[in-house]
Design a protein that fits this description.
Distance between the termini: 37 Å
Number of strands: 5
Number of helices: 5
Radius of gyration: 17 Å
Strand content: 15-25%
Largest sheet: 3 strands, mixed
Oligomer: single chain
Structural class: alpha+beta
CATH class: Alpha Beta
Shape: globular
CATH architecture: 2-Layer Sandwich
Helix content: 25-40%
CATH topology: GMP Synthetase, Chain A, domain 3
Length: 127
C-alpha cells in the first residue's frame, strides 16, 4: 500500500518482532492529522478555514515528524500576513507525532478563487 493510500485509509502499521507486535517508538505522523489541524486556522476576514480556501500549497512530512508547509495568502497586502503563518505553525505542532514545523509563505503561483474548495465557495456564496 502506498503512503498516499495508507494516509487515505488511516492505516498505520506497528513493528513486528518474534515476541509479537511492538508499537512504534514514536507515533507515525499522518497527513490527515496535519490537515485536521490546518482546518482549525481561519483567515480572520473570511469565515472559512485556510485549507478549504486553498491557501495551503504543499505539506511535506518527514519520517522523523518534521513538517514543512508552503502556504500563501489571498493578497500580498493581507492584514493577516504576520499572524496566519504563526497560527499555522502553532496548530500543526499540536498534531500527534509532529517534532518540528517550518512554514514558508510563497507567492507563486498567486492565489485565486479557483483554489477554493466547493465547500468554501458555498460558504461564501461564490459559485
Amino acid at each position: 500500500m502506498s503512503d498516499d493510500t495508507a494516509a487515505t485509509h488511516g492505516a498505520t502499521h506497528g513493528a513486528w518482532t518474534p515476541e509479537g507486535e511492538a508499537p512504534p517508538a514514536t507515533p507515525k505522523l499522518e497527513e490527515d492529522a496535519v490537515i485536521s489541524m490546518l482546518k482549525t486556522v481561519f483567515d480572520p476576514e473570511i469565515p472559512v478555514d485556510i485549507f478549504e480556501l486553498g491557501l495551503i500549497y504543499a505539506v511535506e512530512i518527514a519520517d522523523d515528524g518534521k513538517v514543512k508547509i508552503e502556504m500563501t495568502l489571498t493578497t500580498p497586502s493581507c492584514p493577516s500576513a504576520q499572524e496566519l503563518p504563526s497560527q499555522v505553525e502553532e496548530a500543526v505542532r499540536m498534531a500527534p507525532g509532529v517534532t518540528d514545523v517550518e512554514v514558508e509563505v510563497v507567492w507563486d503561483p498567486p492565489w485565486d478563487q479557483s483554489r477554493m474548495s466547493e465547500d468554501a465557495r458555498l460558504a461564501l456564496n461564490m459559485y
